[in-house]
């Protein structure tokens, strides 16, 4: 070996800056925090954050008191910056490091901000995710559904979609592996005719069957107690037939059954459209959530609340997302239907579907 190389190694000072990257402590770095709210125009802002500036201000006014720090110690991050960091994560599903670089914060700070903002948005759940309980609200929802395909007394359309997550670890981790082979949370929603999320259940592992989620939900118990009268939900064949939950005929034979199925499919399509709009608006639900389980659940519910706010404020739907080139494929993979149940009703459950079939037979 060259003598000069030996001399270099002998004289090498291991305290040089070449080894500083392995030290656990380093000087605190204050990154420049850009003001994207003012820097971007309306079009560029909407493309990057999926909400208009006016809707961001509307949302900020509702949660600012939760996000604001009591003082400016340690160069605290303003609520508007915190909200934009979380929205950017929802809008891309990128690694938090990429979100941190855009927001001018550290990785750890961005992680805490996404958690903090998600919890703040979830606190608005009772205000924006509402199942119609009053007679006036129920009549309005029924009319909206009837206008689609003349299906009577529909209060909502129910289904489940899978949101990919990282393995939660622990002894029960495999419960989250769905039948497609990846880890997920099986999220149940009830959609209105206007694509609003009227109810959301986002706590069940991916291996849980859709019908099991529904039969352990609060809405199911309210329907079983007869609180909604002769109103009903529409579900696919993955659900058991109930007086309050109508499913399609698997093998329709009469004209009435075929008309019933056609109206059922056209009406129930709103929940499929809801998932498409929801995941296009917030691609983190299609790409996957790389957070701890509790934080992932909050992100899902937060996105549902923001989805409803967008509809109520007449926000336009995002056309595409250059950050997620295979978004449509990811959305399709996230919707996993299970057709395990037969459509044969028991004597106690089939009467209402038969009555509605006769109604369609006379149309």
UniProtKB/TrEMBL annotation:
<keyword id="KW-0479">Metal-binding</keyword>
<dbReference type="GO" id="GO:0046872">
    <property type="term" value="F:metal ion binding"/>
</dbReference>
<dbReference type="InterPro" id="IPR045249">
    <property type="entry name" value="HARBI1-like"/>
</dbReference>
<dbReference type="InterPro" id="IPR027806">
    <property type="entry name" value="HARBI1_dom"/>
</dbReference>
<dbReference type="InterPro" id="IPR026103">
    <property type="entry name" value="HARBI1_animal"/>
</dbReference>
<dbReference type="GO" id="GO:0016787">
    <property type="term" value="F:hydrolase activity"/>
</dbReference>
<feature type="domain" description="DDE Tnp4">
    <location>
        <begin position="158"/>
        <end position="308"/>
    </location>
</feature>
<comment type="function">
    <text>Transposase-derived protein that may have nuclease activity. Does not have transposase activity.</text>
</comment>
<keyword id="KW-0378">Hydrolase</keyword>
<dbReference type="GO" id="GO:0005737">
    <property type="term" value="C:cytoplasm"/>
</dbReference>
<dbReference type="GO" id="GO:0005634">
    <property type="term" value="C:nucleus"/>
</dbReference>
<protein>
    <recommendedName>
        <fullName>Putative nuclease HARBI1</fullName>
    </recommendedName>
</protein>
<keyword id="KW-0539">Nucleus</keyword>
<comment type="similarity">
    <text>Belongs to the HARBI1 family.</text>
</comment>
<dbReference type="Pfam" id="PF13359">
    <property type="entry name" value="DDE_Tnp_4"/>
</dbReference>
<keyword id="KW-0540">Nuclease</keyword>
<dbReference type="GO" id="GO:0004518">
    <property type="term" value="F:nuclease activity"/>
</dbReference>
<keyword id="KW-0963">Cytoplasm</keyword>
């Amino acid at each position: 070996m060259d003598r000069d190389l030996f001399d270099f190694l002998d004289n090498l000072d291991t305290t040089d800056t070449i080894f500083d990257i392995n030290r656990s402590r380093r000087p605190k770095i204050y990154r420049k925090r850009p003001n994207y709210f003012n820097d971007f125009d309306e079009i560029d802002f909407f493309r990057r954050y999926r909400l208009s500036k006016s809707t961001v201000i509307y949302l900020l006014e509702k949660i600012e008191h939760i996000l604001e720090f009591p003082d400016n110690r340690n160069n605290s991050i303003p609520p508007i910056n915190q909200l934009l960091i979380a929205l950017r994560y929802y809008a891309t599903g990128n690694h938090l490091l990429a979100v941190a670089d855009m927001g001018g914060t550290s990785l750890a700070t961005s992680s805490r901000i996404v958690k903090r903002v998600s919890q703040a948005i979830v606190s608005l759940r009772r205000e924006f995710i509402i199942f119609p309980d009053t007679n006036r609200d129920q009549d309005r929802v029924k009319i909206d559904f009837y206008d689609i395909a003349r299906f009577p007394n529909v209060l909502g359309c129910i289904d489940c979609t899978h949101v990919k997550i990282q393995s939660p670890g622990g002894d029960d981790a495999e419960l989250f592996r769905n039948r497609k082979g990846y880890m997920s949370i099986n999220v149940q929603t009830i959609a209105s005719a206007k694509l609003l999320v009227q109810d959301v259940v986002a706590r069940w592992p991916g291996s849980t069957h859709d019908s099991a989620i529904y039969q352990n939900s609060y809405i199911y118990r309210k329907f079983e107690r007869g609180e909604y009268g002769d109103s009903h939900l529409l579900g696919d064949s993955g659900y058991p037939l109930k007086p309050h939950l109508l499913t399609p005929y698997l093998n329709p034979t009469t004209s009435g059954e075929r008309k019933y199925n056609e109206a059922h499919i056209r009406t129930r399509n709103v929940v499929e459209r809801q998932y498409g709009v929801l995941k296009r608006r917030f691609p983190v639900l299609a790409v996957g959530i790389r957070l701890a389980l509790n934080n992932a659940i909050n992100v899902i519910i937060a996105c549902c609340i923001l989805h409803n706010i967008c509809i109520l404020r007449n926000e336009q739907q995002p056309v595409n997302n250059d950050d997620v080139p295979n978004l449509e494929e990811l959305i399709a993979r996230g919707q996993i239907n299970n057709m395990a149940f037969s459509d044969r009703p028991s004597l106690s459950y089939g009467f209402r579907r038969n009555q509605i079939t006769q109604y369609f037979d006379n149309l």
